[in-house]
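[09:14] KT: can someone run the structure on this one? pasting the chain below
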Amino acid sequence: MTHIEKRIAVVGVGAVGGYFGGRLAARGHQLVFVARGATLQALAARGLVVHSPLGDLALAPDRFSVCARLDDVGPVDAVLLAVKAWQVAALAPALLPLLSEGGVVLPLQNGVEAPQQLVEVLGAERVLGGLCRIMAEQTGPAEIRHFGAVPEILLGPLGSGASQSARTLSAAQDLAAILEDAGVRCAVRKDITSALWEKLAFIAAFGGVGAATQSPIGVLRTLPETRALLTAAVGEVCAVAEALGVTLADELPARILAYMDALPAQGTASLQRDLKAGVPSELDALIGVVPRLGQKVGVPTPIFSTLYACLLPNAVRPVAS
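[09:31] RB: done, structure tokens below
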């Protein structure tokens, strides 16, 4: 057990929150899950189930706490925010009372906008930048299936250079130690904003092209036409990021394509699965964000403008609350 003792809340118990929260709870860390509806009932009645090639978990309800309301959580040292991207802005004010002295929120949403949305409400000293890499899905209430990629969390202080505080860096290092103690691959990056854009370049291209073609990655990377589309889509995201002052490695597009080549052939992105299932998706946070920010900095984004226009008519609009 790590010498760092913290109380952690996991807000949103879908694939991401369920998997990482489950690993923390299994290691004996003080976990509070905040959930609703059938997931809340399942957590309270039978606990959490995680199926994974890295080891299954079946956690009884006495291995963690569960709350329906943020008001009932009590003080915590960290919040793993694992709700969907469109829910972040509305939830932000309710997170402030949860944070103990020195407490921080780690957003794990897809996209690049959640950290700033939280900073505007909570202040920069209470927000880390973060992202996760995992291929998983919620197969039932409080039941998660991890099926691809080694789960990993990257986190770090926002800003750059002198604008980064020692406080948030220390908080990031403490939280990383806790996650690693629970068996989660984790790394602190001082350039976490760059890492967020690196992930967006991958997941926006993968999810957008996959959803538009209704094809898994094995097909997309094999057909010359769709492989070229993936490559061009990654390039558009990189161009927008660089115009915004975000530093990305020159070899990033090649690295992303190599990563796509290593994914399971039947792999699909959560955006593609959500759109196919007819449930609210992160279409705006992953696809719409590229032309929206591109327009601000004068970067043309014909691929993402087209993907967004094609996918929008059949997308279910999310409700923030």
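[09:33] KT: thanks! The domain at 7-190 is CATH 3.40.50.720 (Rossmann fold).
[09:34] RB: yep, looked fine to me
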